[in-house]
Amino acid sequence: MKLAIDADTCIGSGQCALAAPGVFTQDDDGFGAVLPGREDGAGDPLVQEAVRACPVQAITAEEG
User: Fold this and answer.
1) pLDDT of residue 44
2) For the CA atoms of 17, 41, 34, 5, what is the dihedral angle to 10 degrees?
3) Which of 5, 36, 42, 53 could be a cystine partner for 15, CB 3.0 to 4.6 Å?
4) Res 59: pLDDT
5) Are 40 and 52 in contact (CB under 8 A)?
6) What mean pLDDT is predicted for residues 48-52?
7) 25 - beta bridge partners?
8) In this protein, which residues make up the domain named 4Fe-4S ferredoxin-type (predicted)?
């Protein structure tokens, strides 16, 4: 599964980075970003919590 954050939807709440700091970070502007090399980490239970915690549902975990 591939992780992605919709940059147009993200409001920079930081919930993803708090829930799964080994997978998500915040960029220089404070918006969520997937750490390099972690795009395939959707199976991690902390990632699933980050997806649920996003207040604007900007994080997707897609097949393929």
Assistant:
1) 81
2) -90
3) 53
4) 96
5) no
6) 93
7) 33
8) 1-29
Provide the H-helix boundaries in the chain.
Answer: 15-19, 45-53
First and final CA of the chain: distance in angstroms?
6
| Sequence-distant contacts of 46-51: CB under 8 A, at least 24 apart | 46/19, 46/20, 46/22, 47/3, 47/19, 47/20, 47/23, 49/19, 49/20, 50/15, 50/16, 50/19, 50/20, 50/23, 50/24
Question: Any idea where the domains of the chain sit in the sequence?
Answer: 2-62
CATH domain 2-62 topology: Alpha-Beta Plaits (3.30.70)
